[in-house]
Amino acid sequence: YDDRDGWIWLDGKLVPWREANVHVLTHAMHYASSVFEGVRAYDGHIFELSWHSQRLRNSAAMLGFDLPWSVEEIDAACIETMKANNLKDAYVRPVAWRGSEQMGVSAQKTKPHMAIACWYWGQYLDPGSNGLKLDIAPWRRPAPFTAPVQAKAAGLYMIATMSKHHAEARGYQDALMFDYRGQVAEATGANAFFVKDGALHTPTPECFLNGITRQTVIKLAKKRGIEVIERAIWPEELESFEQFFLTGSAAEIVPVGSAGPWNFAVGDLTRQMQKDYADLVRGKLTL
Ligand code: PMP
């Protein structure tokens, strides 16, 4: 992704894509002091931009560093980067990290940095007509007392990439992860919803990101009078669910056809949520 034309916002100014580099002794690269966002723009409008900018600041704060850019400044920088790259439908990737001013675990003297890139990114996961094929991840989501699980922090993606590669090597598209207790958690980059008897069931976000798309889907469902039950979900129950879909800013709403030995149908409720979300992000529906 480094050798292409375009502009990347870096610490306050737009720089040519190929010149948006950092030093190899960047603290983030050695100690994972990095947080990021994944945002989508539709028809030139960035969906829930300020919510994402606020989450970026919160994620950094959870790792102990404060960003010198306000939500308004991050919003403006995202919009500026989109415009510079002439994009209307785009994926926007803000990332913030501790710099190379100090080596070692302690990072008190490092400076916070931020970059924003954006590019056209089509469908993140292709469900075909029968839904995604998910593996069961060999890695589990950590406990909230082991890692700051509500931060969208790069370090937490180590287990996601390993699980994703493990799944891909076995012919699956992605993996369903359980948490440290063995409860159903989420996929490697998206939250999980299940359908049973016309209601939505979704795990309580105790060990994983309470996604912006997840919270949006809950509101969309409630608007339609669909019951949403947030609770602990155990793998033994997966058999009893009729439908399963994933939610995420990049993934959007994507049906799942199977997860390990369990199979699911691509049904009406999933389709309805897909349509409502598509209408919402393009301003054809309001909450
Ligand atoms: N979980 C993980 C691990 C993710 O990477 C994402 C994508 N940011 C999500 C959940 C969904 O979050 P959101 O809906 O805010 O994009």
Give a short summary of the structure.
This protein is an alpha+beta fold. It folds into two domains: 113 residues, D-amino Acid Aminotransferase, Chain A, domain 1, CATH 3.30.470; 150 residues, Alpha-Beta Barrel (D-amino Acid Aminotransferase, Chain A, domain 2). The protein has six helices and 16 strands.
Topology readout:
Blueprint: E1 7-10, E2 13-16, H1 27-31, E3 34-36, E4 39-42, E5 45-46, H2 49-62, H3 71-84, E6 90-98, E7 112-119, E8 132-136, H4 158-169, E9 174-178, E10 184-187, E11 191-196, E12 199-203, H5 212-223, E13 228-231, E14 243-248, E15 252-259, E16 262-263, H6 268-281
Parallel strand pairs: 8-9, 8-15, 12-13
Antiparallel strand pairs: 1-2, 1-7, 3-6, 4-5, 4-6, 6-7, 9-10, 11-12, 11-14, 14-15, 15-16
Helix pairs in contact: 2-3
The chain binds 4'-deoxy-4'-aminopyridoxal-5'-phosphate.
Give a quick account of the main beta sheet: strands, pairing sense, barrel closure.
Answer: 9 strands, mixed
User: What is the assigned CATH homologous superfamily of the largest domain?
Assistant: D-amino Acid Aminotransferase, subunit A, domain 2
**How confident overall, as mean pLDDT?**
98
Structural class: alpha+beta
Uncertain regions spanning at least 5 consecutive residues: none
What string gives the helices and strands in order?
EEHEEEHHEEEHEEEEHEEEEH
Query: Strand percentage, roughly?
Result: 25-35%
| Termini separation | 36 Å
User: Could you say which overall geometry the principal axes of the C-alpha atoms support?
Assistant: globular
Tally of DSSP helical segments? 6
CATH class of the largest domain: Alpha Beta
What is the total domain count? 2
Helix content: 10-25%
Taking Cα atoms only, what radius of gyration do you get, to the nearest Å? Answer: 19 Å
CATH architectural category of the largest domain: Alpha-Beta Barrel
Q: What is the number of strand segments?
A: 16
The distinct bound ligands, ions and cofactors come out as: 4'-deoxy-4'-aminopyridoxal-5'-phosphate
Q: Describe the oligomeric state of these chains in a short phrase.
A: single chain
CATH fold name of the largest domain, please? D-amino Acid Aminotransferase, Chain A, domain 2
EC number: 2.6.1.42
GO molecular function: L-isoleucine-2-oxoglutarate transaminase activity; L-leucine-2-oxoglutarate transaminase activity; L-valine-2-oxoglutarate transaminase activity
Keywords: Amino-acid biosynthesis, Aminotransferase, Branched-chain amino acid biosynthesis, Pyridoxal phosphate, Transferase
Catalytic activity: L-leucine + 2-oxoglutarate = 4-methyl-2-oxopentanoate + L-glutamate; L-isoleucine + 2-oxoglutarate = (S)-3-methyl-2-oxopentanoate + L-glutamate; L-valine + 2-oxoglutarate = 3-methyl-2-oxobutanoate + L-glutamate
